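Write out the bound-state structure for iron/sulfur cluster.
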Amino acid sequence: MGQTVAEKILAAHLVEGELKKGEEIGLRIDQTLTQDATGTMAYLEFEAIGIPRVQTELSVSYVDHNMLQSDFKNADDHIFLQGAARKFGLHFSPPGNGICHQVHLERFGVPGKTLLGSDSHTPTGGGMGMLAMGAGGLDVAMAMAGKPFYLIMPKIYGIKLIGKLQPWVAARDVLLEVLRQLTVKGGVGYIMEYFGPGVAELSLTDRATITNFGAELGATSSVFPSDENTRKYLAAQGREEQWQELVADADAAYDEVLEIDMSTLEPMIACPSSPDNVVKVSEVAGKPVAQVLVGSCTNSSLRDLTAVAKIMQGREVHRDVSFEINPGSRQVIENLTVQGDVLPLLQSGARIHQSGCLGCIGMGQAPPTGMNSLRTVSRNFPGRSGNKGDQVYLCSPEVAAASAIKGVITDPRDLGEYPRFELPATYLPGDERIETPLSAEEGSKVDIVRGPNIAPFPEFTQLPETWKGKVVLKLEDNITTDHIMPAGAAILPLRSNIPAISEYVFSQVTENFSTDIKAITDAGLFGAVIGGENYGQGSSREHAALAPRYLGVQVKLVKSFARIHKANLINFGILPLTFVDAEDYDKVQQGSEIVIPDIREAVSSGAETIPMEIDGQPIQARCELSSRHREIMVAGGLLNWAR
Ligand code: MIC
Ligand code: SF4
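---
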């Protein structure tokens, strides 16, 4: 039987296990990327592993998230990251140079390669025919050290694209439709692979929008074939020699197939506060908007901003709207300038910011109280914009521009004819500021400068013989890592200081988490957290495991986990358990006492169900872990295990 694109890349990189769906496999990783908010920890972990230089073909450290320098913390972290890149042999992309995923696509992505990034939107590279996956910083550190990346062999979800998008309908709408149908947990355990005649109708950056936003399906990754459009994009980047064709075999088989006829799609929008809360724009048209933000790694490419500039040409932003543009990269701004497309944006009244994540992760750009914000970002989880109770909608750049002009949510087809434009055959590269790796000898002489914000990595104990604890918090379905370990301007700068950031664990949900757990650990017990389905969806931030563990959480018992978060829990020695009988969820409350006798023995012996007592009542929990995971758990985490 033939292979899909994803299966071809998996087969070419397999170093451990067999390509049997549902079993653990180890993959060789060709390229890695980190961003600053997860990168400081990743390089501290890399240092702790003790390998002097990265072992990958290419590794890049980006600074794009923590861009506000309201005190010394972020600025110090940037210097640390630059020093680490120089010492360990990485490329370094400094602040202002662009969002990791956009820049990586432009300057480094190569079809057929594997890419592991400490950011959940790393699958952006799948738009170019890479197998690009998000992971926690420690997994990326291990990959930089030349170790395999372990994952459960995913199933392949084929998305068959037919037809062609109508004017004013965008790549964003394709994935909004997929999210509408499959929901934020529809991709868990799958690689989403796009195929069919509609693929050729999508430009490379359109494809990257789809694979990027595909992270919101909970998928392991998303991938497109590498074809003529891929070649054209690499040629425009001056990298045509790195192109290779990569398409699925004619008799390739998919585990599931969803067909999307792009010609029937209309402009869509995700309503507050989940990316799968999708309706047609026409259904919510007319609602007033106070802020419109075009940017983020999902929709800030040269194509997207050119489209917005052409739409704004000769038009004006509504006086009640703050229209904000966050370009994806320096390359995008440079080329937009050469095309003459910056002036119409400025004249329309747009606020042009430096390139970076900015408001997408609550680093500034918070919307006004009680008012609607329309964004081309990937996530509208509650409070992520920086305001509790925020009303954030997700849409295409076309819907954003039309709504900025009208001051209300607007179906862009109301603006009349779609502007015609062509992108240049060759782009200005815009990578003047990217540092290339130093030689091993030069690197060995570099001293990494560490500001006071960089705290040493905490030590963790092994799994005890018998586990006694209390439920600190009980939560519902679809809890995101933004609930567990919020981001935003006040908290993100603490990413390299675990004791400091741990004070904010679950601060979106309750004010008392850190004091409640302290009372539990002071009594000599551990903490447990109870959750519903798809627990830990969203980002790759390992702080959502590391900080709770630092506080004393050692068990999470939920209905189901999101992939990256589960991997991060294992890496930091938090036992991820699921209910055998979902109805047992109702038997456990905040404050319930849990006893797991012989937990160490049960985990190391390979037991798939673990008996426990909750307030004296016996229940069974499922423990789905590979034998490698079990050793890590018993050791108290991956770093302990590796040592
Ligand atoms: C996000 O979009 O949530 C982030 C911020 O990029 C995260 C990474 C982080 O929390 O640092 C992600 O997507 O993994
Ligand atoms: Fe940055 Fe937002 Fe993309 Fe995350 S989703 S990498 S915060 S732009």
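---
The longest strand covers residues 155-162.
Residues 65, 99, 119, 121, 296-297, 357, 360-361, 377-378 surround iron/sulfur cluster (ligand 2) (CB under 6 Å).
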